[in-house]
Automatic annotation (TrEMBL):
Domain spans labelled V-ATPase proteolipid subunit C-like: 29-91, 112-174, 195-257
CDD domains linked to this entry: ATP-synt_Fo_c_NaATPase (cd18184)
Site (Reversibly protonated during proton transport): E78
Known role: F(1)F(0) ATP synthase produces ATP from ADP in the presence of a proton or sodium gradient. F-type ATPases consist of two structural domains, F(1) containing the extramembraneous catalytic core and F(0) containing the membrane proton channel, linked together by a central stalk and a peripheral stalk. During catalysis, ATP synthesis in the catalytic domain of F(1) is coupled via a rotary mechanism of the central stalk subunits to proton translocation.
Listed transmembrane segments: 21-48, 69-93, 105-130, 151-176, 188-216, 237-260
Protein name: ATP synthase subunit c
Cross-referenced InterPro entries: ATP_synth_csu_bac/chlpt (IPR005953), ATP_synth_F0_csu (IPR000454), ATP_synth_F0_csu_sf (IPR038662), ATPase_proteolipid_c-like_dom (IPR002379), F/V-ATP_Csub_sf (IPR035921)
GO cellular component: plasma membrane; proton-transporting ATP synthase complex; proton-transporting two-sector ATPase complex, proton-transporting domain
Length: 267
């Protein structure tokens, strides 16, 4: 009973603020949550840089190729950080939630959930950095096979970004087209469902790292045996598709929470 009273008191305290002030405050928190995604690219690019340096020491004559591939892969690993930055900037400078009609609490929670959703970008950032490091390593071990191994790295890294794109889609829906904002039902259920949609997308961290690992190993294998590139790509893509399943589950639950939520009908 005491916990229930605390929740009620907390909600009443939140609703005592002006609607616009509540949304702006939540947007600031959402922007902060979004930038947590920067952890992934930071770790991934650091790994790639370390492998690039190691590759240069192994084969100084191939340093140019190793460095180029390392920088190319590290640039791709930056994608999640850029997407998170875009969401944070929208929340700060072009926030569509401020002028939205609807329940103030749900709109405010939409801003926080949009930021939380982008945390999924940690996974692709780490995974793509791993693939970049393996690309640099492969170029030093077999410079003649650097072209096919780079192709595998790019392809695998692109697939590893899928979870980040899913998170971006949910984040944009939460900001621009969240049906719960104008939905009918208890505000606490609508707000909690909105928050749940954002939290569900954090699951994308796992597939992002896993797919990046597959991309890195595929790149490494192609560098050793370039003639087997086709078969390596098939196996890598198949494995990455399986690794994406939990990310798809999270996406489905996030969409159900927003567009076909059975909980709302129970009240």
């Amino acid at each position: 009973m005491e916990n229930t009273n605390f929740i009620v008191l907390f909600l009443n305290w939140l609703l005592s603020f002006d609607k616009k002030a509540l949304i702006l405050a939540a947007s600031a928190i959402g922007a902060g949550f979004a930038m947590i995604a920067g952890i992934g690219p930071g770790i991934g690019q650091g790994y790639a840089a370390g492998k690039g340096a190691e590759a240069t020491s192994i084969n100084p004559k191939a340093a140019k190729h190793s460095t180029m591939i390392m920088l190319l892969g590290a640039g791709i690993a930056e994608t999640s950080g850029i997407l998170a930055l875009v969401i944070a900037l929208i929340l700060l400078f072009g926030n569509p939630l401020v002028v939205q009609e609807g329940d103030g609490l749900v709109i405010a929670v939409s801003a926080i959930a949009a930021g939380i959703s982008m945390i999924a970008g940690i996974g692709p950032g780490v995974g793509q950095g791993y693939a970049a490091g393996k690309g640099a390593e492969a170029a030093s071990m077999n410079p003649d096979g650097s072209r096919p191994s780079t192709l595998v790295m790019l392809l695998g890294s692109a697939v590893a970004q899928t979870s980040g794109i899913f998170a971006l889609v949910i984040s944009l829906i939460l900001m621009y087209a969240n049906p719960l904002v104008s939905g009918h039902g208890a505000a606490i259920v609508l707000a909690a469902s909105t928050l749940g949609a954002g939290i569900a997308m954090i699951a994308g961290i796992g597939p992002g790292i896993g797919q990046g690992y597959a991309a890195g190993k595929g790149t490494e294998a192609t560098g050793k045996r370039p003639k087997l590139q086709s078969g390596i790509i098939k196996t890598m893509i198949l494995g990455q598709a399986v690794a994406q399943t939990t990310g798809i589950y999270a996406l489905v639950i996030a969409l159900v929470l927003m567009f076909a939520n059975p909980l709302i009908k129970l009240l």
